[in-house]
Amino acid sequence: MKAPKIPEATITRLSVYSRFLERMDRQGVVTISSGEIAEGVGVSPAQVRKDLAYFGEFGTRGVGYNVKDLMRYTLKILGLTRPWTVVVVGAGNLGTALSTYKGFRDRGFYIVGVFDNDLTKIGKRIQDLEVYPLEKLPEIVARHGVKIGILAVPGEAAQEVADLLVQNGVEALLTFGAVVLNVPEHVVVRNVDLSVKLEILTFNLSFRASHGL
Amino acid sequence: MKAPKIPEATITRLSVYSRFLERMDRQGVVTISSGEIAEGVGVSPAQVRKDLAYFGEFGTRGVGYNVKDLMRYTLKILGLTRPWTVVVVGAGNLGTALSTYKGFRDRGFYIVGVFDNDLTKIGKRIQDLEVYPLEKLPEIVARHGVKIGILAVPGEAAQEVADLLVQNGVEALLTFGAVVLNVPEHVVVRNVDLSVKLEILTFNLSFRASHGL
Fold it and tell me: What residues of chain A score a pLDDT lower than 50?
Protein backbone atom coordinates (compact mmCIF):
# COMPACT_ATOMS: atom_id res chain seq x y z
CA MET A 1 0.00 0.00 0.00
CA LYS A 2 1.31 3.39 -0.93
CA ALA A 3 1.51 5.76 2.02
CA PRO A 4 -0.68 8.80 1.42
CA LYS A 5 1.12 12.14 1.61
CA ILE A 6 -0.17 13.76 4.79
CA PRO A 7 0.81 17.38 5.45
CA GLU A 8 2.92 17.84 8.56
CA ALA A 9 0.56 20.60 9.68
CA THR A 10 -2.22 17.98 9.77
CA ILE A 11 -0.13 15.74 12.04
CA THR A 12 0.61 18.70 14.31
CA ARG A 13 -3.10 19.47 14.57
CA LEU A 14 -3.97 15.78 15.19
CA SER A 15 -1.63 15.97 18.14
CA VAL A 16 -3.51 19.02 19.41
CA TYR A 17 -6.93 17.42 18.73
CA SER A 18 -5.95 14.31 20.63
CA ARG A 19 -5.02 16.36 23.73
CA PHE A 20 -8.33 18.19 23.52
CA LEU A 21 -10.24 14.92 23.12
CA GLU A 22 -8.44 13.46 26.13
CA ARG A 23 -9.55 16.48 28.15
CA MET A 24 -13.15 16.15 26.94
CA ASP A 25 -13.11 12.43 27.69
CA ARG A 26 -11.89 13.10 31.23
CA GLN A 27 -14.78 15.55 31.61
CA GLY A 28 -17.20 12.83 30.59
CA VAL A 29 -18.13 14.23 27.17
CA VAL A 30 -19.40 11.37 24.96
CA THR A 31 -19.95 12.93 21.53
CA ILE A 32 -18.53 16.07 19.98
CA SER A 33 -18.98 17.97 16.70
CA SER A 34 -16.21 19.18 14.42
CA GLY A 35 -17.36 22.68 15.35
CA GLU A 36 -16.79 22.01 19.03
CA ILE A 37 -13.35 20.52 18.37
CA ALA A 38 -12.57 23.50 16.15
CA GLU A 39 -13.60 25.98 18.80
CA GLY A 40 -11.74 24.07 21.50
CA VAL A 41 -8.43 24.21 19.68
CA GLY A 42 -8.79 27.41 17.64
CA VAL A 43 -9.06 26.24 14.02
CA SER A 44 -11.99 26.18 11.56
CA PRO A 45 -14.52 23.30 11.54
CA ALA A 46 -13.68 22.69 7.86
CA GLN A 47 -10.03 22.23 8.83
CA VAL A 48 -10.93 19.65 11.47
CA ARG A 49 -13.03 17.67 8.96
CA LYS A 50 -10.33 17.89 6.30
CA ASP A 51 -7.61 16.75 8.70
CA LEU A 52 -9.63 13.75 9.89
CA ALA A 53 -10.64 12.84 6.35
CA TYR A 54 -7.02 11.90 5.57
CA PHE A 55 -7.49 8.89 7.80
CA GLY A 56 -10.91 7.66 6.74
CA GLU A 57 -14.55 8.19 7.63
CA PHE A 58 -15.40 9.43 11.08
CA GLY A 59 -18.47 10.66 12.81
CA THR A 60 -22.14 10.53 12.02
CA ARG A 61 -23.81 13.47 10.30
CA GLY A 62 -25.88 15.39 12.83
CA VAL A 63 -24.50 13.37 15.74
CA GLY A 64 -20.81 14.12 15.58
CA TYR A 65 -17.88 12.08 16.72
CA ASN A 66 -17.67 9.63 19.59
CA VAL A 67 -15.04 11.24 21.82
CA LYS A 68 -13.42 8.02 23.06
CA ASP A 69 -13.23 6.45 19.61
CA LEU A 70 -11.83 9.53 17.96
CA MET A 71 -9.34 10.09 20.80
CA ARG A 72 -8.09 6.50 20.50
CA TYR A 73 -7.91 6.79 16.75
CA THR A 74 -5.84 10.01 16.84
CA LEU A 75 -3.49 8.41 19.37
CA LYS A 76 -3.17 5.37 17.13
CA ILE A 77 -2.32 7.48 14.09
CA LEU A 78 0.29 9.36 16.10
CA GLY A 79 1.86 6.09 17.22
CA LEU A 80 0.95 6.73 20.84
CA THR A 81 -0.84 3.49 21.69
CA ARG A 82 2.52 2.25 22.92
CA PRO A 83 5.11 3.93 25.16
CA TRP A 84 8.34 5.26 23.64
CA THR A 85 11.72 5.38 25.31
CA VAL A 86 13.86 8.42 24.59
CA VAL A 87 17.45 9.44 25.24
CA VAL A 88 18.66 13.00 25.69
CA VAL A 89 22.21 13.88 24.71
CA GLY A 90 23.55 17.00 26.42
CA ALA A 91 23.04 17.71 30.11
CA GLY A 92 23.34 21.49 30.00
CA ASN A 93 20.41 23.73 30.84
CA LEU A 94 18.41 22.71 27.78
CA GLY A 95 19.09 18.98 28.23
CA THR A 96 18.21 19.23 31.90
CA ALA A 97 14.99 21.14 31.15
CA LEU A 98 14.02 18.53 28.55
CA SER A 99 14.83 15.63 30.86
CA THR A 100 12.38 16.95 33.44
CA TYR A 101 9.73 18.20 30.98
CA LYS A 102 6.43 16.92 32.39
CA GLY A 103 4.63 17.02 29.04
CA PHE A 104 6.66 14.10 27.70
CA ARG A 105 5.60 11.51 30.24
CA ASP A 106 1.94 12.56 29.93
CA ARG A 107 2.09 11.51 26.29
CA GLY A 108 3.95 8.26 26.88
CA PHE A 109 7.52 9.40 26.29
CA TYR A 110 9.97 8.05 28.87
CA ILE A 111 13.46 9.47 29.10
CA VAL A 112 15.69 6.50 29.94
CA GLY A 113 19.07 8.17 29.69
CA VAL A 114 20.79 11.56 29.68
CA PHE A 115 24.33 11.69 28.35
CA ASP A 116 27.20 14.13 28.27
CA ASN A 117 30.94 14.01 27.68
CA ASP A 118 31.60 16.80 30.19
CA LEU A 119 33.21 15.32 33.29
CA THR A 120 31.64 18.04 35.47
CA LYS A 121 28.18 16.88 34.38
CA ILE A 122 28.63 13.10 34.37
CA GLY A 123 27.22 11.57 37.56
CA LYS A 124 25.00 14.59 38.25
CA ARG A 125 21.42 13.66 39.13
CA ILE A 126 18.47 15.12 37.23
CA GLN A 127 15.44 14.04 39.28
CA ASP A 128 15.51 10.23 38.99
CA LEU A 129 18.06 10.20 36.17
CA GLU A 130 21.84 10.16 36.39
CA VAL A 131 23.94 11.81 33.69
CA TYR A 132 25.94 9.09 31.97
CA PRO A 133 29.07 9.36 29.86
CA LEU A 134 28.47 9.04 26.11
CA GLU A 135 30.25 5.67 26.15
CA LYS A 136 27.26 4.23 27.98
CA LEU A 137 24.83 5.26 25.23
CA PRO A 138 25.01 2.05 23.14
CA GLU A 139 24.18 -0.08 26.19
CA ILE A 140 21.18 2.04 27.28
CA VAL A 141 19.80 2.36 23.75
CA ALA A 142 20.04 -1.39 23.24
CA ARG A 143 18.59 -2.28 26.65
CA HIS A 144 15.52 -0.05 26.25
CA GLY A 145 15.07 -0.38 22.49
CA VAL A 146 15.34 3.39 22.11
CA LYS A 147 14.27 4.75 18.74
CA ILE A 148 14.15 8.46 19.61
CA GLY A 149 17.04 10.74 20.50
CA ILE A 150 16.92 14.38 21.54
CA LEU A 151 20.04 16.42 20.80
CA ALA A 152 20.65 19.19 23.31
CA VAL A 153 24.27 19.74 22.38
CA PRO A 154 26.11 22.68 20.79
CA GLY A 155 25.68 22.83 17.00
CA GLU A 156 29.28 21.80 16.33
CA ALA A 157 28.80 18.53 18.24
CA ALA A 158 25.43 17.64 16.74
CA GLN A 159 26.59 15.64 13.71
CA GLU A 160 28.89 13.44 15.75
CA VAL A 161 26.16 12.74 18.31
CA ALA A 162 23.64 12.03 15.53
CA ASP A 163 26.07 9.53 13.98
CA LEU A 164 26.50 7.75 17.31
CA LEU A 165 22.73 7.56 17.85
CA VAL A 166 22.04 6.28 14.35
CA GLN A 167 24.83 3.69 14.53
CA ASN A 168 23.14 2.35 17.63
CA GLY A 169 19.71 2.01 16.04
CA VAL A 170 18.00 5.31 16.87
CA GLU A 171 15.73 6.25 13.97
CA ALA A 172 14.26 9.61 14.96
CA LEU A 173 16.08 12.72 16.10
CA LEU A 174 14.86 15.98 17.58
CA THR A 175 17.30 18.86 17.37
CA PHE A 176 17.28 22.44 18.64
CA GLY A 177 18.50 25.61 17.01
CA ALA A 178 20.12 26.02 13.62
CA VAL A 179 21.39 22.48 13.15
CA VAL A 180 21.49 20.65 9.82
CA LEU A 181 22.28 16.95 10.03
CA ASN A 182 23.35 14.40 7.45
CA VAL A 183 21.61 11.15 8.28
CA PRO A 184 20.64 8.00 6.38
CA GLU A 185 17.29 8.15 4.59
CA HIS A 186 15.49 5.95 7.11
CA VAL A 187 16.16 8.42 9.94
CA VAL A 188 13.49 11.05 10.68
CA VAL A 189 14.80 14.41 11.86
CA ARG A 190 12.80 17.35 13.14
CA ASN A 191 14.12 20.62 14.39
CA VAL A 192 12.73 22.95 17.04
CA ASP A 193 13.76 26.49 16.25
CA LEU A 194 12.46 28.66 19.04
CA SER A 195 13.07 31.89 17.16
CA VAL A 196 10.53 30.79 14.55
CA LYS A 197 7.90 30.94 17.30
CA LEU A 198 9.05 34.40 18.34
CA GLU A 199 8.79 35.50 14.71
CA ILE A 200 5.14 34.50 14.63
CA LEU A 201 4.72 36.92 17.53
CA THR A 202 6.62 39.74 15.81
CA PHE A 203 4.74 39.14 12.57
CA ASN A 204 1.51 39.66 14.47
CA LEU A 205 2.77 42.70 16.36
CA SER A 206 4.20 44.37 13.23
CA PHE A 207 1.40 43.45 10.88
CA ARG A 208 -1.15 44.81 13.27
CA ALA A 209 0.84 48.04 13.74
CA SER A 210 1.29 48.51 10.00
CA HIS A 211 -2.44 48.05 9.42
CA GLY A 212 -3.35 50.43 12.22
CA LEU A 213 -5.01 47.65 14.21
CA MET B 1 -7.16 48.23 4.71
CA LYS B 2 -8.44 44.87 5.76
CA ALA B 3 -5.69 42.52 6.87
CA PRO B 4 -5.63 39.40 4.68
CA LYS B 5 -5.94 36.13 6.57
CA ILE B 6 -2.52 34.54 6.30
CA PRO B 7 -2.12 30.95 7.49
CA GLU B 8 0.24 30.55 10.40
CA ALA B 9 2.02 27.76 8.51
CA THR B 10 2.88 30.34 5.84
CA ILE B 11 4.44 32.63 8.44
CA THR B 12 6.42 29.72 9.85
CA ARG B 13 7.74 28.91 6.38
CA LEU B 14 8.56 32.56 5.66
CA SER B 15 10.71 32.46 8.76
CA VAL B 16 12.48 29.41 7.36
CA TYR B 17 12.80 30.92 3.86
CA SER B 18 14.33 34.08 5.28
CA ARG B 19 17.05 32.09 7.09
CA PHE B 20 17.79 30.17 3.91
CA LEU B 21 17.94 33.42 1.89
CA GLU B 22 20.32 34.95 4.44
CA ARG B 23 22.59 31.94 4.03
CA MET B 24 22.43 32.17 0.23
CA ASP B 25 23.14 35.91 0.40
CA ARG B 26 26.20 35.30 2.58
CA GLN B 27 27.39 32.78 -0.01
CA GLY B 28 27.10 35.47 -2.69
CA VAL B 29 24.09 34.02 -4.52
CA VAL B 30 22.32 36.83 -6.41
CA THR B 31 19.20 35.23 -7.90
CA ILE B 32 17.31 32.11 -6.93
CA SER B 33 14.31 30.17 -8.25
CA SER B 34 11.34 28.99 -6.23
CA GLY B 35 12.57 25.45 -7.01
CA GLU B 36 15.93 26.18 -5.42
CA ILE B 37 14.33 27.72 -2.33
CA ALA B 38 11.97 24.73 -2.16
CA GLU B 39 14.84 22.27 -2.35
CA GLY B 40 16.88 24.23 0.17
CA VAL B 41 14.19 24.12 2.82
CA GLY B 42 12.36 20.91 1.93
CA VAL B 43 8.96 22.03 0.63
CA SER B 44 7.43 22.02 -2.87
CA PRO B 45 8.12 24.87 -5.35
CA ALA B 46 4.34 25.45 -5.61
CA GLN B 47 4.23 25.96 -1.84
CA VAL B 48 7.01 28.56 -2.01
CA ARG B 49 5.19 30.48 -4.76
CA LYS B 50 1.87 30.27 -2.94
CA ASP B 51 3.38 31.49 0.33
CA LEU B 52 5.09 34.45 -1.30
CA ALA B 53 1.98 35.33 -3.31
CA TYR B 54 0.20 36.31 -0.08
CA PHE B 55 2.45 39.32 0.06
CA GLY B 56 2.38 40.50 -3.56
CA GLU B 57 4.27 39.91 -6.77
CA PHE B 58 7.83 38.70 -6.57
CA GLY B 59 10.40 37.44 -9.03
CA THR B 60 10.67 37.49 -12.79
CA ARG B 61 9.55 34.51 -14.79
CA GLY B 62 12.55 32.55 -16.02
CA VAL B 63 14.95 34.63 -13.92
CA GLY B 64 13.74 33.97 -10.40
CA TYR B 65 13.99 36.07 -7.30
CA ASN B 66 16.66 38.55 -6.32
CA VAL B 67 18.04 37.00 -3.12
CA LYS B 68 18.78 40.25 -1.29
CA ASP B 69 15.40 41.82 -2.13
CA LEU B 70 13.43 38.72 -1.18
CA MET B 71 15.43 38.23 2.01
CA ARG B 72 14.78 41.83 3.06
CA TYR B 73 11.13 41.50 2.17
CA THR B 74 10.65 38.32 4.22
CA LEU B 75 12.38 39.98 7.17
CA LYS B 76 10.12 43.00 6.77
CA ILE B 77 6.96 40.87 6.77
CA LEU B 78 8.17 39.06 9.88
CA GLY B 79 8.77 42.39 11.64
CA LEU B 80 12.51 41.74 11.82
CA THR B 81 13.81 44.96 10.28
CA ARG B 82 14.01 46.28 13.84
CA PRO B 83 15.44 44.68 16.98
CA TRP B 84 13.08 43.38 19.68
CA THR B 85 13.71 43.32 23.39
CA VAL B 86 12.44 40.30 25.31
CA VAL B 87 12.05 39.34 28.96
CA VAL B 88 12.16 35.80 30.30
CA VAL B 89 10.23 34.96 33.45
CA GLY B 90 11.51 31.89 35.25
CA ALA B 91 15.19 31.20 35.82
CA GLY B 92 15.04 27.42 36.14
CA ASN B 93 16.68 25.15 33.61
CA LEU B 94 14.32 26.12 30.82
CA GLY B 95 14.53 29.85 31.51
CA THR B 96 18.30 29.63 31.73
CA ALA B 97 18.51 27.67 28.48
CA LEU B 98 16.28 30.24 26.77
CA SER B 99 18.24 33.18 28.15
CA THR B 100 21.41 31.87 26.55
CA TYR B 101 19.83 30.56 23.34
CA LYS B 102 22.10 31.81 20.54
CA GLY B 103 19.41 31.64 17.87
CA PHE B 104 17.51 34.57 19.38
CA ARG B 105 20.25 37.17 19.03
CA ASP B 106 20.99 36.06 15.46
CA ARG B 107 17.45 37.07 14.55
CA GLY B 108 17.45 40.35 16.44
CA PHE B 109 15.87 39.25 19.72
CA TYR B 110 17.62 40.66 22.78
CA ILE B 111 16.89 39.29 26.24
CA VAL B 112 17.04 42.30 28.54
CA GLY B 113 15.84 40.68 31.75
CA VAL B 114 15.38 37.31 33.45
CA PHE B 115 13.09 37.22 36.47
CA ASP B 116 12.21 34.80 39.21
CA ASN B 117 10.61 34.96 42.64
CA ASP B 118 12.84 32.20 44.03
CA LEU B 119 15.35 33.74 46.44
CA THR B 120 17.90 31.05 45.61
CA LYS B 121 17.83 32.12 41.96
CA ILE B 122 17.66 35.92 42.33
CA GLY B 123 21.09 37.47 41.85
CA LYS B 124 22.43 34.43 39.96
CA ARG B 125 24.28 35.33 36.77
CA ILE B 126 23.31 33.81 33.43
CA GLN B 127 26.09 34.88 31.08
CA ASP B 128 25.79 38.69 31.01
CA LEU B 129 22.36 38.72 32.66
CA GLU B 130 21.49 38.80 36.33
CA VAL B 131 18.33 37.14 37.62
CA TYR B 132 16.07 39.88 38.99
CA PRO B 133 13.16 39.61 41.40
CA LEU B 134 9.75 39.88 39.74
CA GLU B 135 9.26 43.29 41.40
CA LYS B 136 11.85 44.71 39.03
CA LEU B 137 9.91 43.60 35.94
CA PRO B 138 7.85 46.80 35.46
CA GLU B 139 10.98 48.96 35.50
CA ILE B 140 12.89 46.81 32.97
CA VAL B 141 9.91 46.41 30.65
CA ALA B 142 9.32 50.18 30.65
CA ARG B 143 12.99 51.08 30.22
CA HIS B 144 13.50 48.80 27.20
CA GLY B 145 10.03 49.09 25.69
CA VAL B 146 9.61 45.32 25.93
CA LYS B 147 6.69 43.90 23.95
CA ILE B 148 7.59 40.19 24.15
CA GLY B 149 7.63 37.98 27.22
CA ILE B 150 8.69 34.34 27.47
CA LEU B 151 7.12 32.34 30.29
CA ALA B 152 9.37 29.60 31.62
CA VAL B 153 7.44 29.09 34.85
CA PRO B 154 5.42 26.15 36.20
CA GLY B 155 1.91 25.96 34.72
CA GLU B 156 0.23 27.03 37.95
CA ALA B 157 2.20 30.32 37.99
CA ALA B 158 1.68 31.13 34.32
CA GLN B 159 -1.56 33.13 34.52
CA GLU B 160 -0.27 35.39 37.28
CA VAL B 161 2.94 36.08 35.38
CA ALA B 162 1.00 36.72 32.17
CA ASP B 163 -1.20 39.23 34.00
CA LEU B 164 1.85 41.06 35.33
CA LEU B 165 3.45 41.21 31.88
CA VAL B 166 0.27 42.42 30.19
CA GLN B 167 -0.35 45.06 32.87
CA ASN B 168 3.08 46.42 32.10
CA GLY B 169 2.53 46.69 28.36
CA VAL B 170 3.83 43.38 27.04
CA GLU B 171 1.71 42.37 24.03
CA ALA B 172 3.11 39.01 22.98
CA LEU B 173 3.70 35.92 25.10
CA LEU B 174 5.50 32.68 24.40
CA THR B 175 4.63 29.82 26.73
CA PHE B 176 5.86 26.26 27.11
CA GLY B 177 4.00 23.06 27.88
CA ALA B 178 0.30 22.64 28.44
CA VAL B 179 -0.56 26.20 29.47
CA VAL B 180 -3.78 28.01 28.59
CA LEU B 181 -3.85 31.72 29.36
CA ASN B 182 -6.65 34.25 29.61
CA VAL B 183 -5.38 37.49 28.13
CA PRO B 184 -6.96 40.59 26.59
CA GLU B 185 -7.71 40.39 22.88
CA HIS B 186 -4.78 42.58 21.83
CA VAL B 187 -2.26 40.16 23.33
CA VAL B 188 -0.77 37.50 21.04
CA VAL B 189 0.03 34.17 22.69
CA ARG B 190 1.82 31.22 21.18
CA ASN B 191 2.69 27.99 22.87
CA VAL B 192 5.63 25.67 22.32
CA ASP B 193 4.64 22.12 23.11
CA LEU B 194 7.69 19.97 22.70
CA SER B 195 5.74 16.71 22.80
CA VAL B 196 3.98 17.75 19.59
CA LYS B 197 7.34 17.62 17.86
CA LEU B 198 8.06 14.18 19.31
CA GLU B 199 4.68 13.03 18.04
CA ILE B 200 5.63 14.00 14.50
CA LEU B 201 8.55 11.63 14.94
CA THR B 202 6.42 8.79 16.31
CA PHE B 203 3.85 9.31 13.58
CA ASN B 204 6.60 8.80 11.03
CA LEU B 205 8.09 5.81 12.82
CA SER B 206 4.71 4.10 13.31
CA PHE B 207 3.25 4.92 9.96
CA ARG B 208 6.30 3.58 8.22
CA ALA B 209 6.23 0.41 10.30
CA SER B 210 2.52 -0.16 9.69
CA HIS B 211 3.04 0.24 5.95
CA GLY B 212 6.03 -2.10 5.92
CA LEU B 213 8.37 0.71 4.86
Answer: 1-2
Pick the closest to residue A136 from A117, A154, A118 (CA basis).
Answer: A117
Task: Confirm if A152 and A177 have CB atoms less than 8 A apart.
Answer: no
Domain end among A62, A77, A92: A77
The pLDDT-based confidence of B110 (bands split at 50, 70, 90) is: very high
User: What's the total number of domains in chain B?
Assistant: 2
Task: Give me the interface pTM, i.e. the ipTM.
Answer: 0.89
Domain co-membership, B41 together with B95? no
A170 and A144 co-located in one domain = yes
Average of per-residue pLDDT values in chain A:
90
Do residue B199 and residue A148 have CB atoms under 8 angstroms apart?
no
Is A25 an 8 Å CB contact of chain B?
A: no
CA B159 to CA B157: how far, in whole Å? 6
Q: Using an 8 Å CB-CB cutoff, list chain B residues near A201.
A: 148, 172-174, 188, 190
A119 lies in which domain range? 84-195
User: Which pTM does this prediction carry?
Assistant: 0.84
The stretch B152-162 carries a mean pLDDT of 93
User: Which DSSP string do the residues of B120-147 spell out, in sequence order?
Assistant: TTTT-EETTEEEEEGGGHHHHHHHHT--
